[in-house]
From TrEMBL:
This is SpoVT-AbrB domain-containing protein. It comes from the Bacteria. InterPro entries: SpoVT-AbrB_sf. It comes from Lentzea waywayandensis.
Amino acid sequence: MTISFIRPIVPDTAPGNTRGASARIAGQPLPLIAVPVSPPPRLGNVLYSVATLDDRGRVADRHMTAALNWTATTRLNIREHDGLLAVTADPHGVFKLTKQGHVRLPADARRAAHLKSADRVLLVAHLDRQTVTVFPPIALDQLVLPALQGGGDL
């Protein structure tokens, strides 16, 4: 019995090549994001998610609410701070998850955060604090755009 091997496909990296993963555009290398040599350790008690705000002000990420052990009976406090929305488990809170496990953001909080229906938001859950911070698009613009406009490597 003979064993045959399949030759690996290796992209040609010869100068002037315009195909494959090592292609250059107009003689310039493809842009890459600068990654620190020793990045700081990830926080194990923080979860990230992106969700869409529906026409009733609901956002949903069942994985996140399950990790927080939030149920339809969990009382919540929702407040705006510096353009972000903080959703916290609070036994005296006036809000609750919907039966489907969605967080319904009240209209006044949505207005304060400049949120509208179909906006995509970044949800950041801090498991130890039993808190979800909602980052609306305008807050993400303020975080990301300076790096892009500053000529960084993004």
